[in-house]
Design goal:
By secondary structure, this protein is α/β, with parallel strands linked by helices. About 45% of the residues lie in helices and about 10% in strands. The protein has a 5-stranded mixed beta sheet. A 3-stranded parallel beta sheet has the order 3-4-5, with helices on both faces. β1 and β2 form a beta hairpin. α3 packs across α7, α7 packs antiparallel against α8 and α13 packs antiparallel against α14. It is globular.
């Protein structure tokens, strides 16, 4: 009897404990439900409004995006600097080198973002043709890629709004300014991408790196007296298909950053433009150093074959002080290349100030900062790089 009573008492106690625990769990669950928002509410509270680079207000949900499409010249390049390329759900044909039918005018040029991500891009469906002749977004192709956000460099606000309404996903427009890689607008575009994709640290790191690089170059050259500076001419700037030895700029950004004396002055406007042949001839006697952007070689060569005397009035050509910089404008600006070019120009014009700089090592450093990979070998091996940065042999280069 005693054992039975003892067992009964124990069972009663256990039942009471179990019931008490269940009650507490129900209360805890209820409290938890009151304090924790639903998934929908959590999503709503994480939404924020950003202003894109052409002033449009767009509501985004930072860090939530799983399918990204980039459209327009330079958009995919800039996204590649900050975003995760594995999130891309489509790519323009011009950036998919596995396609046989696509714009191929830049295939021989070093576009580092394509080189670095060629395998990823080749696996993606088309979100449009892309390229210089594609002046409008292809909404149907974009829709077929099922993006949940679009990064664009089409700068017509009304068209961007219309595209956003048609796609029913945020369309974020990026933009840079006249100073290119050194422009505040480029920094703002990087930071905007960092905010949207929760890569703020990466964006800040890149902006800080570029800023320090610029400061280093400028500081090394800031104390050079004007009368001690050689006069320098840069040509081959502008559009890939039209540039030649007459295409130049009196406000060339790399010259400004490196305190280089530009022999071209007195033009009515800034920016890349073609000067008259007479102007080119008149500059010749004062030009100590000449830089040719690799983009122009394909156009200059037939001109030189037709008239081998075309550079005879150029002092730099006659004295063999002609140098090749890498093409930095191919489906818009290669920003890392523009930075490397600035180092190369500064080192060439002021060698004593940059004895510690090896341009191949600097190329690897810069591409790693931008794209996470050392890429000097790949860049210099592209056909339109002609082996990389070099002093041109004026007796044979264009023959």
């Amino acid at each position: 009897m005693k054992n039975k009573k003892l067992i009964s008492i124990i069972l009663t106690i256990l039942t009471i404990i179990a019931l008490t625990a269940c009650g507490n769990n129900e209360k805890a669950t209820a409290l938890s439900d009151e304090k924790t928002p639903t998934t929908a509410n959590a999503d709503e509270t994480s939404e924020t409004e950003v202003t894109d680079m052409i002033g449009r207000k767009v509501t985004v949900n930072p860090g939530s995006y799983k399918k990204v499409v980039c459209i327009g010249a330079g958009a995919l390049r800039m996204y590649s600097y900050i975003g995760d390329v594995s999130l891309l759900s489509g790519v323009e044909d011009i950036d998919n080198t596995s396609l046989s039918e696509r714009p191929q005018m830049f295939d021989g040029v070093a576009r580092p973002y394509v080189i670095a991500n060629e395998e990823v891009f080749s696996q993606l469906p088309s979100c449009g043709v892309g390229g210089p002749n594609a002046q409008a977004a292809e909404a149907e192709k974009i829709l077929s890629c099922k993006p949940d956000i679009v990064i664009s460099e089409y700068e017509d606000a009304d068209k961007e709004d219309a595209l956003q309404e048609q796609l029913n996903v945020p369309v974020i427009t990026l933009k840079t300014g006249p100073m290119g890689v050194f422009d505040d607008a480029f920094f703002e575009s990087m930071n905007l991408l960092g905010e949207i994709f929760e890569k703020e640290d990466k964006a800040e790191s890149l902006v800080n790196y570029i800023t320090k690089e610029k400061e280093d170059i400028t500081k090394r050259t800031s104390d050079i007296k004007e009368e001690e500076k050689p006069s320098v001419y840069i040509c081959g700037l502008g559009n890939w298909g039209t540039t030649n030895h007459l295409m130049t700029a009196q406000n060339y950004v790399s010259f400004k950053v490196a305190n280089v004396k530009n022999v071209v002055t007195g033009l009515e406007a800034d920016g890349v433009q073609e000067i008259e042949s007479e102007k080119f001839v008149s500059l010749g006697a004062d030009t100590d150093i000449m830089f040719i952007d690799a983009a122009a070689v394909k156009n200059i060569k037939p001109l030189y074959e037709e008239d081998p005397s075309m550079f005879d009035t150029m002092k730099a050509w006659k004295e063999g002080n002609v140098y090749l910089e890498m093409a930095f404008n191919a489906y818009y600006t290669n920003y890392e290349t523009a930075l490397i070019n600035t180092w190369y120009i500064a080192k060439t014009v002021y060698p004593d100030k940059f004895e510690d700089i090896d341009i191949t090592q600097k190329t690897n450093e810069v591409t790693k900062a931008f794209l996470g990979k050392e890429m000097a070998k790949e860049i210099f091996s592209k056909p339109a790089s002609f082996g990389g940065y070099q002093k041109i042999d004026t007796n044979s280069f264009f023959k």
